[in-house]
Amino acid sequence: MRPLNSILSRVVVLHIVAVAITSLAMCIALSWLLNRATDNIHDEAMRKQATAIASHLRMGADGKPALQLPPDLQGIYSQPYNRYLYAVVDENGTVLFSSQANHAPVFSDWAKTDLSLDEARRGDATISGVSLRKNLDGKDFWIQTGENLSNRDALTDDITRGFFREVGWITVPILLILLVIDIAIFRRALRPLRHASLVAQNIGPTRTDVRLPADNMPLEIKPLMMAVNRALDRLDEGFRVQREFAADAAHELRTPLTVIRTRLDLVGNQELVASLRRDLDSISHLVNQLLEFAEVETAEISPDEIADLREICENVAAFVAPLAISQRKTVALTGGEEPVLVFGNREMIRRAVLNLANNAVEYTAEGTTVEFLIQRDGTLGIKDAGSGISPDERELIFQRFWRRDRKRSGSTGLGLSIVRRIVDIHDASIRIEDNPTGGTTFTVAFRAYLDGTL
């Protein structure tokens, strides 16, 4: 059997077991109480009958006891099925008066006290009743009254015998109602946990500032939430130190690189200088991208910032065009002439577009065109005619420092990771598609600003 993983399911199952046990115990207890109440009513009825008969017991003029019952009492003891019985006996056990045809006592053996509860067996029948003492002229007499339990009232018998079954049937809908109420209560009690789960889904390397709400948590859960938040604080501090280190290192490396580049002019071997300059250019590019990555990691975008995507693409296209032309490639910009407004930071979007454009110019074939495809819905596509990207590599290329060919110079493996970070902080999306004629199209979908709405 699979374990119950949900707190709600565990509580509900345990509650079902508890309610079932409680219901069973309640039925048994109530059945016992009903039987006891029935017995008490029976004993009280027998005592009242004995008292009523005793009130009509007199000492006659001849010095012998006489009993004259009124018609209502006579009717009780003259029933054809002989349900109720009475007898009057003296202290020697001699029966003076009896409702039975054989003039027998109700109880042949009884405790000779003022009032005793007695029971006798007659064949398959059980006679239950009382023996009440009455003193007349210094002599003790006992009035015995009994009820034949085999002829007990049918309604009382049905209630007693069917009580457990009837209460058990009523317990089923009560249990179901309790379950529905309990589930509603438990769901309401667990609502803060569900809210915390939704908040936790937003926590990641790019959102280390998010914390779990601990104010409205149950006392049992609050320490766990606070411990998680303290762990997130330490994690956020670690990310902050890492980002600051990368930025500081990039800043510190710029100066010595500039000094080295200047001193190369003093070296006489021009072939060596050219080789060293290429190496310095690669290192400078890496340092600049490290600095850019550190800045992007800490960037915050205002939700009401708006940028013109077409203007950004025109600027980037004009910037990369000389590089493309020097490599016998061209750059084209397609789309309408009107501005395409999107939500986002202009400088951050420009960096993302520039990295994608540089990547496209670098990998597209000679004699081909890098095309900017701008749509009114805020979607930008950058199309190249390179060798394409296999489906297995489409997630790897966004990882930091990942390169397909590590021997290739001029590539740091940071450009597309910067693009992914900028896309994420703008709540945008990016996808990679193969072109029918060869090459790849990177499509970035920003949130469009249309007449003041999304």
TrEMBL record:
Enzyme class label: transferase
Domain HAMP: 187-240
Residue span(s) of domain Histidine kinase: 248-450
Gene Ontology annotations for the cellular component aspect, listed alphabetically: plasma membrane
Keywords attached to this entry: Kinase, Membrane, Phosphoprotein, Transferase, Transmembrane, Transmembrane helix, Two-component regulatory system
Entry's localization field: Membrane
Protein name: histidine kinase
Pfam families: 2CSK_N, HAMP, HATPase_c, HisKA
PANTHER family hit by this protein: SENSOR HISTIDINE KINASE CUSS, SENSOR HISTIDINE KINASE YKOH
Keyword field contains Endoplasmic reticulum: no
Membrane topology reported for the UniProt record: Multi-pass membrane protein
Principal location: membrane
E.C. number: 2.7.13.3
Catalytic activity from the UniProt record: ATP + protein L-histidine = ADP + protein N-phospho-L-histidine
GO molecular function terms attached to this record: phosphorelay sensor kinase activity
